[in-house]
Amino acid sequence: MQKDVAALSPEEATEELAQLAAALARANTAYHTQDAPEISDAEYDALKRRNKAIEERFPALKREDSPTEQVGGAVAEGFQKIRHSTPMLSLGNAFDDTDVAEFDQSIRKYLGVSDGQVLDYTAEPKIDGLSLSLRYEEGALMHAATRGDGQTGENVTQNARTIADIPQTLSGAPDILEVRGEVYMSHADFADLNLRQAADDNKTFANPRNAAAGSLRQLDASVTAGRPLRFFAYAWGSVSAPLGGTQFAAIARLAELGFQTNPLTQLCNGPGEMIAHYAKIEEQRAGLGYDIDGVVYKVNDLALQARLGFRSTTPRWAIAHKFAAELAWTRLEGIDIQVGRTGALSPVARLQPVTVGGVVVSNATLHNEDYVAGRDSNGNPIRDGKDIRPGDWVQVYRAGDVIPKVADVDLTKRPEDAAPYVFPELCPECGSVAVREEGDAVRRCTGGLICPAQAVEKLKHFVSRAAFDIEGLGAKQIEQFFSDGWVREPADIFTLRDRYGSGGIQQLQNREGWGQKSAENLFDAIDDKRTIEFRRFLFGLGIRHLGDGSSKDLSRAFGTWEALTAAADLAIAEPAFQELTKVTLKVSPAWEEFLNIDGIGLTLTQSLLAALANPQERASIDRLVAHLTILAPEEQAADSPVAGKTVVFTGSLERMTRAEAKARAEALGAKVSGSVSAKTDLLVAGPGAGSKAKKAANLGIETIDEDAWLSMIEGL
């Protein structure tokens, strides 16, 4: 079985999160941009679930390019772009009854609603199609846009006008109304379409979702007009007047306006009724005539939805209860070792290709040497102690990791000459010793910068979507440039024009896939990223444990790279840091500037300071900084009374939960800290405030109660 998240070491978690981010980014591009998914929805959902579980276990390790920070995929070439006035977000996932109950409890905890109080939800089938937003002004359809990356979508207005389920005009609608829903194709229409496509010697489609997405995203609207597309409305974006006071009433209003809404949508009181309706829909699934991949639950009261608000890419008030994944058996042909950017040696199974749920699988993760040997990091048996050997007949589980995993072994089919796998003690890329430190489940290459695999992976991370995101410079190009000796470290990217200039353009033109225009565009795209947001710069450095949340937290706390490095240098100069060992770093007073930042822990602080104290790594970063203008974070709500101030909450809050208070303060531009220091501007103290209130009083820090806090921010 897959290693439990609770048993992962921080190093394992960091490596796995990196792999998950890369794999899910590829899956998003294949699914949303190319309409050619490489993995099934069940596997994709399981990958995101695994990612979420690791992030909850290790919040300091969350990456900026984490799937929890990504929505959809990039806009495809050939379409004009439309920026959504209200972002089109994705949904969090539930996979079993426990997840549904936990969702309900999280809602109640956030809102301060007791278990005895009624809390209604809507439950509706989750249509497996293509998300679409329709904007109406004064009753007329103005434009239609796909989800895209959640912020910007593709303009498919003319195509959408050909769909019979989409009204061209509305009577009695608000002056501005954005209707969100799903474009889909019925099973019968899909079968007929494929018959016509085959008869005309045209491309046939793998499934109704691909057919619907490919049909809507045609540059020629007449092609779309010939395709049997349908549309279900289930949500809304910007609206000039409310559609209703509840989710259920608002959906009913959409139906009155002429939109198709799903008749299986039902009002449920609590998890019991939600799960019962899920089971009812699952029983009817095969006979619906269209594809669904789960059931969506939403808090019914729209006022409560407004209080709950949003995370970065998902609403707190909704969740998708997904259907299960699949299994298959195949032959393990061999075990390869991949080296990640942190030097971790990761075993990967090479499989005899097998089809699982419509997707051909030829590789699977084996996690680490303990997993291969049939034990966990504490030496306890997993899979009943069965090890994994080349030649084994193995069960592949299409869920739960960056690529499918090997879940079990059939010993009755093990070849007599199958030998136990011996994990390498030398890096297969550079030959350096691979060391497994005490307490660490991962064996790591000690080659550092001389290891080409680590260097290449760090560069891929640097140009990734959540970091510098240089258009035209992706993983494939990085591998090419590294192999040619053009780029060895991030700073080299920004000296390409000076070093190669027109000669570089000429050399690129001679390569497959490059022309003069694309080469010129690459150099221009690099120049565009000489000015970069502080948080993206930090994340792009690829420092272990420095992920999405922590990059944002550090950028908000220090404001500038110069301020951060000045604080780091003070901490590095202290004797406590100079006495560090390979295993532990001693905490010193100078570290408090980092540890007092809410969300920044000891592990991340150690990793960051160690990186900046490494002469080679620091020199590489300094060479990079010389080519950049690093933008300080923009202050939010600059006219609010707490913008730019450091606020600490302590004691019991009675009128809002702690999470709600923190989210509100940050939305108003405040920095929320977990501890009181001389840099604290305001302490909000509820009943039961203890040592923090005393320390604030000794430091002369302004202290107010919850009522005063709410009065201060009222109306903002």
Give the structure's gist in a few sentences.
With 716 residues, the protein is α+β, with helices and mostly antiparallel strands. The protein contains 26 helices and 24 strands. The strands form 7 sheets. Strands 2-11-10-3-9 form a 5-stranded mixed sheet, sandwiched between helices. A 5-stranded antiparallel sheet has the order 14-13-12-15-16, with no helix packed on it.
Report on the structure:
The chain has 716 residues and is an alpha+beta fold. The chain has five domains: 5-70 and 326-413, OB fold (Dihydrolipoamide Acetyltransferase, E2P); 81-322, DNA ligase/mRNA capping enzyme (D-amino Acid Aminotransferase, Chain A, domain 1); 463-493 and 495-529, DNA polymerase, domain 1 (Orthogonal Bundle), CATH 1.10.150.20; 534-631, 5' to 3' exonuclease, C-terminal subdomain (DNA polymerase, domain 1); 646-713, 3-Layer(aba) Sandwich (Rossmann fold). Helix content is 37%, strand content 19%. It has 26 helices and 24 strands. The strands form seven sheets. The chain has a five-stranded mixed sheet with strand order 2-11-10-3-9, with helices on both faces. A five-stranded antiparallel sheet has the order 14-13-12-15-16, with no helix packed on it. Strands 5-4-7-8 form a four-stranded antiparallel sheet. A hairpin with a 5-residue loop joins strand 12 (327-339) and strand 13 (345-356). Helix 1 (10-33) runs antiparallel to helix 2 (41-57). Residues 72-77 and 581-586 have low confidence and may be disordered.
